[in-house]
Write a structure and sequence with these properties.
By secondary structure, the protein is an all-alpha fold. The chain has seven helices and no strands.
Amino acid sequence: MATLTAAIGKADAAARKTTGPPPGVDAATGEVAESAQPAAPAKAKAKRSPKAAAQAAAEVNVLVASADAAGLKAMARDRGLATTGTKVEVAARIAAHDADTAAASRSVSKRPEGTKRITVDLDPTRWKALRLAAVDAGLPAARLLRVCVDRIADDPGFAAEVADAAAADGGVR
């Protein structure tokens, strides 16, 4: 965990660090090209809670395990992040960006009235499969699970298939 936290810190530092003149500025004369656009002002970094840091670390693990270097660089480029560095550094940059974006868009609200909460114990393989599916879809894992429950309720054939697979599973793992 300490190594992963250090990697996230290095990636954050690498994302803030600039070398040489900004794009569109001549290094020798310091003149700005007409086509150059002014750089966006740097955002102040908000401190992350331990829970948010742990979630970012988990996302880094999933990204490093599931994506190749080219895929990670494409994801970073799509988010407007630096694409240089190791897979872990790029993944840490993506995770930090996603955590910051999610925290900014999250609103504090109570659970919708009339809903029930469940806890599901998953072995590491199933957890990883769920997280990868959620990352690939760009959706929360809970939303994917709700759709699966809806499909079980709406499709008797699928419900029977799921029940057979659950019976063959042999219990909780």
